[in-house]
Write a structure and sequence with these properties.
The complex is a heterotrimer of chains A (466), B (178) and C (285).
Chain A (H helix, E strand, L loop, with lengths): L11 H10 L6 H27 L14 H12 L1 H12 L9 H22 L25 H34 L2 H11 L6 H34 L11 H28 L7 H32 L2 H12 L3 H13 L7 H5 L1 H28 L14 H24 L5 H37 L1
Helix pairs in contact in A: 1-16, 2-15, 3-5, 3-9, 3-14, 4-5, 4-8, 4-9, 5-6, 5-15, 6-7, 6-8, 8-9, 9-10, 9-14, 11-12, 11-14, 12-14
Chain B lengths: L6 E7 L2 H18 L2 E7 L7 H5 L6 H30 L10 H28 L18 E7 L4 H10 L4 E6 L1
Antiparallel strand pairs in B: 1-3, 1-4, 2-3
Chain C lengths: L1 H10 L14 E6 L8 H9 L6 H6 L8 E5 L23 E5 L9 H4 L5 E3 L5 E3 L9 H5 L6 E2 L28 E2 L5 H13 L14 H5 L5 E5 L6 H8 L17 E2 L11 E4 L8
Parallel strand pairs in C: 1-10
Antiparallel strand pairs in C: 1-8, 2-3, 4-5, 6-7, 9-10
Classes of the chains: A mainly alpha (466), B alpha+beta (178), C alpha+beta (285).
């Protein structure tokens, strides 16, 4: 792999300069995208106010479709949030150093997608104004939340996940914030000074930092797994046919990593282009991320197909009905498109040419995400449409309010992400330096070994001559 | 009582290898004449070897983590259990388990992670000595690619340390009085 | 009082028949042989329980609120599931199968454990109660109900009542706001009333069988619906359950040919308190 060492010659000052430049005056396209996103968010707020005043009915949910897009979006965004943890924590623990240039934005993605996801259970509630009733606080009526409900586990898991991933992002960013502080002026100087907490790069700071970072990674991996298993429990703990499936937690986690990886590729290509990070976000890294995505896609496919198989062979009347309805019923378009996008499309990544081209990976990652979004929809809706009680069978498509709020959530996520990229360094400077340092050291060591090998050879040749 | 003034010598070096040499010569100097009080190393990236040359830092962060995780798990479990108790005083629950283990374990699991993470962060701030004000002599170069070494030394021994710094091609040497 | 209830809860932990000492367990029997699908029970339920009439448009969108509904199932020729076909039934003149469907007051109700705020719980009377004030509208219970008999207030329906009609609302129970779940209560306000009356008459633990009727039972022209206390061995409903070999706490009931009694979706083991008596039809004509 001679490509790997292209990074060993990057000057450290250039790393600082390159990344810090990405924080400076944004291009016009930045403002345009930001404005579009803000508009989307605004329209979502208007839709939510309308729904708040009129009632949930304006979203065109009904009986039996008590849950619809809000829940599938919730699952989608939670799934997206697994990317950062995967890239950052798992690859940190497995010492895969190619994560270093790209983990920062993946972690930011984690935080913002969980902030997006957390909105959904709230706007989904019939009586939003009583949201605080799910918090365990003592009140005069001595009524407490019901910890047996998977929704409460959700609340606990999301709280833990949002807090931990925000802190993980923040702690990992402190050395970079110090760099920003050293180079900033005005309000940014004040902000970075406050946030970097007087980090000076002292040895004891670094030692404590490394230890903390690894410990937190050890927490984040099981946490991420538990979060999506718990989201899966919302479905698996019910008695609905095709929701009550034992493999759901695993299936959800695999799907989460899958869509998360796809999202990372999308943002990877975008950031590389917008901020000119070609020197750091190299094709090799893209190649590795694509391979990882492919592996996870195959795991997800296996779980998906085994779910179909186990339903088919169980011959359970209700579940089979739902399965058949999925493939040949009113939602068949969704299911087949999902299979096309998420099962067939990833095989394109078998080809090196596809993995190495920014454009093809960008489009492919969008296709995969579309597939995973549809997957969430087909988890929620078709089982409700053909439930235990045939008399209530009904096909319902999400109404305008739900669609607007869905679009708004994409705007909200992008808006937060763009603002983040302009305020905080989206490439980890110190970790890239570490990467350069270690690679340089490794290559000089290799050169030394080469030298000694040559010496030995020469010596042997001399011996032979004698 | 007036605090005794600290005299520091701060030097900046090109790379980590020369900084390491400086530290080892300072150690030798210290063995001979007991002049060096406190060596502090400023670096733009982490160097795990630092612990070998500067000595053990003793940062038992993992103990905080363990304690946090355990207390979080127990606390969350107790919260869920106690909430169920309080609930049972007002609402009959029809023979269902008073402390349902599977859900409570889920809650305890999340509690363990949440409190564990918070405890780890607290330990980080304690042992990293953060937050603090920037030292006056802190140099921006340290956050780019240079290594800074700060030595606390008595004014009369200052020249010895300075000699060591000079012999290793320090790009900049500053005397600081705090 | 609170402590007593807590100790009681602990002492009866995991008992299958938790409320076996409670004086009441309300149950229902619906004889499908007698049901003619007239819908009088539905109308009575609307009137008694302040159930909002949502109108044609909302009904078409699936926002209807009928706590009690008459489900119609038509014969399928050769067992094919072409319900929409014109020739769906060889004998359309013989009409549909009717099943009046309302909350089955399951003893192992799937809706109860999933509520995040414990707005739905099991009363010692064997009723699956819904606390309107506590509900935050997560709608999880509605999804988890296999009978789909929980109804969500998608709008503020009471606001649509034209002027004099608000006078006909039943003062014995509330009018529900938007954003909460509601469902059949076995006319809990009438049960309360009957209990109070029994108290006044000096037999507090015993409501005389037949002294109280649910609205649907009262209005059924063919007496297809029988309501009563399953704990009282002499009540009509108990005798019917016994006669048709349907036993509580058993999910594999007697399925002999001459037995008509069954509970809907019994195999899910949700222990409903409503027994249906199968319709006997002359299919060989």
């Amino acid at each position: 792999m001679e490509h790997q060492d292209t990074m060993k010659d990057v000057a450290w000052a250039k790393i600082n300069a390159d990344v810090l430049r990405s924080l400076e005056k944004p291009r016009r396209i930045f403002w345009i995208v930001l404005a579009v996103c803000a508009l989307l968010v605004l329209s979502g707020v208007v839709a939510e106010i309308y729904q708040y005043r009129e009632g949930m009915g304006v979203a065109l949910m009904n009986r039996p479709h008590y849950w619809q897009l809000y829940i599938s979006n919730f699952v989608f965004w939670i799934g997206m949030s697994h990317s950062g943890t995967l890239l950052s924590a798992i690859l940190l623990l497995t010492k895969a150093d190619w994560r270093k240039p790209i983990y920062r934005f993946a972690e930011a993605m984690t935080l913002f997608s969980i902030l997006t996801a957390a909105i959904y259970p709230i706007i989904h509630l019939g009586r939003v104004w009583n949201l605080y009733w799910i918090l365990p606080y003592p009140d005069a009526r001595t009524i407490w939340p019901n910890f047996r409900s998977p929704l409460l586990w959700d609340a606990a898991a999301i709280t833990a996940y949002a807090t931990s991933s925000a802190l993980f992002l923040y702690i990992g960013m402190i050395p970079d914030l110090a760099i920003c502080r050293d180079n900033a002026k005005g309000w940014r100087k004040k902000l970075y000074t406050a946030l970097s907490m007087g980090w000076m790069g002292r040895a004891r700071e670094w030692m404590a930092f490394r230890k903390t970072y690894i410990l937190m990674a050890c927490f984040l991996v099981p946490l991420a797994v538990s979060v999506h298993s718990i989201v899966a429990s919302d479905f698996a703990m019910s008695i609905m046919p095709d929701w009550h499936i034992t493999s759901f937690p695993l299936y959800f986690v695999a799907g989460a990593l899958y869509s998360g990886c796809a999202a990372i590729i999308t943002l990877f290509v975008m950031l590389r282009h917008i901020f000119k990070f070609e020197a750091y976000m190299t094709t090799e890294i893209l190649d590795k991320t694509a391979k990882l995505t492919f592996a996870i896609a195959m795991a997800w496919n296996y779980l998906n197909l085994s779910e179909y198989a186990s339903i088919w062979y169980s011959n359970d009347m209700y579940e089979k009905e739902v399965l058949l309805a999925k493939f040949f019923g009113p939602y068949a378009v969704i299911v087949w498109t999902m299979l096309l996008c998420a099962t067939v499309a990833p095989f394109a990544m078998v080809f090196k040419k596809v993995r190495h081209s920014m454009w093809s990976m960008f489009i492919l990652s969008l296709v995969l995400q579309l597939g995973m979004w549809l997957e969430r929809f087909q988890i929620v809706s078709p089982p409700l449409a053909s439930n235990h009680e045939p008399w209530t069978w009904a096909v319902v498509w999400p109404g305008a309010v739900q669609l607007i709020i869905t679009l708004a959530s994409f705007g909200w996520f992008t808006m937060l992400f763009l603002i983040f990229c302009k305020i905080f360094p989206s490439v980890s400077m110190y970790e890239v330096k570490e990467m350069v340092f270690h690679r340089r050291k490794a290559s000089s060591r290799a050169r030394l070994e080469d030298l000694s090998a040559i010496k030995e050879e020469v010596a042997r040749a001399e011996e032979g001559l004698q | 009582m007036r605090r005794r003034k600290k005299h520091l010598l701060f030097g900046i070096f090109e790379d980590f290898d020369s900084a390491r040499d400086v530290v080892s010569s300072l150690k030798v100097l210290d063995l001979k004449e007991m002049v060096v009080d406190n060596i502090e190393l400023y670096s733009p990236i982490e160097h795990p070897e630092v612990e070998e040359i500067l000595g053990d830092f003793h940062q038992p962060i993992q103990r905080f983590t363990l304690f946090g995780a355990l207390s979080g798990a127990i606390g969350a479990f107790l919260l869920a259990a106690a909430a169920a108790q309080a609930m049972f005083t007002v609402q009959p629950q029809g023979g269902k388990p008073v402390i349902p283990l599977p859900p409570n374990i889920v809650i305890a699991y999340e509690g363990a992670i949440l409190i564990g993470v918070l405890a780890t962060i607290a330990a980080f701030f304690i042992y990293a000595g953060l937050p603090r004000r920037l030292h006056k002599h802190y140099d921006n170069k340290v956050s780019i690619d240079q290594i800074g070494i700060e030595v606390q030394v008595l004014p009369e021994n200052m020249h010895l340390v300075r000699a060591v710094f000079d012999s290793h091609q320090a790009t900049e040497i500053r005397e600081v009085v705090q | 009082m609170a402590l007593k209830r807590m100790l009681e809860n602990w002492s009866r932990l995991r008992q299958r028949d938790y409320y076996k000492d409670a004086p009441y367990l309300w149950g229902l029997t619906i004889d499908l042989n007698k049901c003619i699908g007239c819908g009088a029970c539905v109308a009575a339920c609307y009137a008694e329980n302040n159930v909002p009439v949502v109108g044609k448009e909302h009904c078409g969108r699936g926002h209807s609120m009928h706590w009690m509904r008459i489900e119609r199932y038509w014969d399928e020729p050769d067992g094919k599931a072409d319900i929409g076909q014109q020739d769906a039934s060889d004998f359309p003149e013989r009409g549909a199968h009717y099943i009046p469907m309302m909350c089955q007051q399951c003893n192992h109700a799937p809706c109860e454990p999933v509520c995040p705020v414990a707005a739905t719980y099991h009363s010692p009377d064997g009723l699956n109660t819904q606390v309107y004030n506590r509900c935050i509208g997560s709608r999880y219970c509605g999804n988890n109900c296999p009978y789909k008999v929980r109804y969500f207030n998608f709008f503020n329906f009471w606001k649509d009542l034209p002027h004099p009609l608000e006078m006909q609302l039943n003062p014995d129970l509330t009018v529900r706001d938007k954003g909460i779940m509601e469902k059949c209560t076995f006319c809990v306000q009438r049960i309360r009333d009957a209990k109070d009356q029994a108290n006044d008459e000096g037999h507090p633990e015993h409501v005389e069988d037949g002294s109280m009727q649910t609205a649907c039972q009262q209005s059924c022209p063919t007496d297809a619906i029988v309501f009563g206390n399953l704990r009282d061995p002499k009540s009509q409903v108990s005798r019917l359950w016994e006669q048709h070999h349907v036993v509580l706490n058993r999910h594999e009931q007697d399925k002999s040919d001459d037995i008509r009694g069954y509970r809907v979706l019994e195999e899910l083991n949700v222990e409903p308190c409503v027994m249906y008596l199968d319709r006997v039809r002359d299919v060989e004509v």
